[in-house]
Amino acid sequence: MLGTTLKLQPELDVEKMSVPLLLQDKVALVERYVAGFPDLQRRLLALMDSWCQPGFDIKDVARQYPQVASLSLEKLSPKVLSRQVLRLQEQFGMVPALCPHAATQQRLAALRHLCHKRFVEKSLSQENWADHVQGLVGHSPWLQEQLSQLLTSLGDPGTAARCALNLLLPEDQLPATVAAELSRLQLQGRAADADSRPNVKDMKDQHYQLPIPRENVYLLASREDLARHEGALLQPQQVVGVDLEWTPVFVAGGRPRPSLLQVAMEGRVFLFDILALTQPPAGQGAQAFSQLVAQLLSDPSITKLGYGMAGDLQKLGTSCPALAHVEKQVLGGMDLLLVHRQMRVAGMPTPGVDRASGLRGLSLLVQQVLGTTLDKTQQLSNWDRRPLCEEQLIYAAADAYCLLEVHQALCREPARFHLSGDLAGSQRPRHRERPGTQEPPGLREASASPRQVPVAVAEATIPRVPARTFRVVCDNMLQGLARSLRCLGVDAHVLGSSEDHRRAAEVARLEGRIILTSGQPYHTLRAQVGAGRCLLVDGSLKAQQQAKSVLRHFNVRVTHEDIFSRCQACNSDQYLKVSRDMMKQLMWLSSHQEGPWTSGDKATHSQERQEPGPAPEEAPGGSTHDRPCRWLQAADLCAEMPDMLANGTRLQLARVPAGVLRTPGLRHFYCCTRCGKVFWDGSHLGRVATHFRDVLESAPGPCEPSPAPSPAGSSF
What range(s) does the 3'-5' exonuclease domain occupy (predicted)? Predict the structure, then answer.
């Protein structure tokens, strides 16, 4: 560095001085060497850019300097080196034309990224992908060739040919298999993307769905629009979700310009068209927009939810000078990104995450909390183009509205996500953050105030619902939950295995039921039945845990008398009582059927049925059962078949073990009039009471008699 100290740089050959240092990955020394000498900086950029040209091999340069230990040549690959060149070009204040090869390498990296999004993650629509790719490739033969190779490696020849046809790629640049498929498509005259575009309708239910009507999404593009909705936007004590959309930039020197600001509140979403509102920059529309946004963000009574909110607001400040540094003025802000980090710190498991899909950020949080993923096909679309398409508007609204639903779920069950009851406190790191990673003061101070954080509604304020009047419809993935709820007296209808999830909404509306679902149709169903009528159940929990969660959520009152008041198999609450002697004869007749009953048989059995005998002794498990239902009568049985009720239901006598008839103290059985299932006293009641002890009201102890008898405690 003697030359630098003596300022001899203009007298020395910059290439001979720089190349050995670059081969040793000492770029910082080279930067200091050319500092203050614009001509040397231009020559250095030209040298490094020449190493980025297609087909260049850095090993050829390394062989010219055998005395240099070139241990870091991988850091001089075109991909890495092009980043260094473009960084220095911006740092030196040079024109981009000095670095054409680095810019081309950057475009190639962008092409690889877009192809991965389109063909691997499938998170980018064909239209948006083609729009970006066309701008990146342009008329560069080398980039066209690279794109052809990418398409061939990531998709089948048919997909590559359709994309090549859509992008007008030269046929001589395509591999033989792709070129042959392209010729076939041209002969058939088919549209380029007719088969490659995903079926949006079929994929609709696979992602988070906006749970509000489309007419409740408002696009604000003028001063008059702002004035019309100002009252709703600045309503005190509300919670809003805030998000920002911008067109991605893939070329050197570009800066993303915010295009759309979304503000979601309960039942509505407002989309601020930033491009329209800020033109002209000093116009009345721009002033009204800046004042309204500043007032919204600085109102401490309004809780603002975001994910990486500080970064979004910094971008907003770059395009709206009046909102510069607005991220430092936020009061009442809650950044769910910081909450999400604490969920990870606590070691929260991530059930259902498809690691191969690479979920991250807000999409990962939505999957973990709501059980579904965000549809990101419009994320990289052209947000500067006007008018915005319908898909972009729905995507933008959903991106902001999901923040409200995530926040509600976290407030309702913080322990489930390994968070403290003070959700605002979850934003504060549990360990010392690295310098420069703290959130802006405005967000940090606002989150420290517990008054800013709405909490879940206290259970005591929700009306108690008796178990026998609580009615639900479960999707076919929650059959275990339905059986557990029926066990506690809840009327639980289950969809058949062949029934579509839309059937749940029909049943809920017709019969006044609550929908319980564990699948992705949650948002679609919720939009059809209204708020509070659909619950997303955690599919990773066991059935009994799910049942407890549902009962607590809806504040359902379960008493000891409710246990087994419904048949777990068919949901009926109608039983017939059968004496042990009668059951013994029915089982014998069922296994020795030779003809119809005689009138004498009927009389004998009728007499036995009408004489219930003494009260049953205590059953195993410490409880007695005496379901208040009528005794089996002769008219209830089919004359030709003694094991069939007159309504056509066949009693499931074969499933009753013969040894049960010899159980001491067992005097009667119960049979379900709908499915014929047979129940009897046993230890099952005690086990159920123990399992659900924490949700039972005034449940008796394990050795206390039941204050009000209930149906049988064991079943087969």
Answer: 217-415
